[in-house]
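Worked example 3. Consider a protein that binds zinc ion.
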Amino acid sequence: MAEHQLNPFIGLKNRLAAKAAIACTAVAAMILAQPLSEDLSRESTVQEAQIANGIEAAFGQARIVRCVSSEQLARRSNPLVAARADHVGGVAWPGLPFIWLNQKECDAISLFIAYPPQKSYEIRSGQARALFNAVHEYRHTVGTLQEDRANCEALQTMGELGETLGAPAELKKDITQFAALGFEALVNKYEKTGQSEIIAPYKLDNCLAGSSYDLGILPAANFPWPLR
Ligand SMILES: [Zn+2]
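Given these inputs, the predicted complex is written out as structure tokens:
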């Protein structure tokens, strides 16, 4: 699950009133309470630098990555969502070059880097999800606001990160499909447990070839959604 900042000047009452609509956005007060410098002022760990280097190599933009615990991530997220979501994968704010990832995602990416899949049957769904989450956050850092658009853009581009981190080019589509399948399962899970409103902003209904979410990178026949 990922977050981004809405208007930082919106009043508390308005924020609470609008909580259903901004279910997956960070709240300005969180930023004020948690200065960005808190964990950005330290050196990157080897793991964080490795992931940041991969993102830069795949997409050409330098980013600072921080791998933090679920608790730390929740403190940077919308508390209304963090309290209810089973798992928050990362946080980023549009236009800022910082990506916070759940330590679990970082560890999954590190495993991918150490043992990149060479065959389709070697792809691990948790690792595909971690790449998906990292690229989702990356899309926020390049300015994407909406969660469903960030998801759609991540599906179109995450194969590049997979290849950069060691998978063969012919696996890019399969890695992406694993992530898309995993996301679809997550949607089903939230909807079956009566928590549709948490996952609704992320759903891929508008992720279609030729739509405004189409980055124009992939031919329509290879567009990652809907699954086929
Ligand atoms: Zn997001």
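Take a moment to read the result before moving on. Residues 12-222 form one domain. The chain is about 50% helix and 5% strand.
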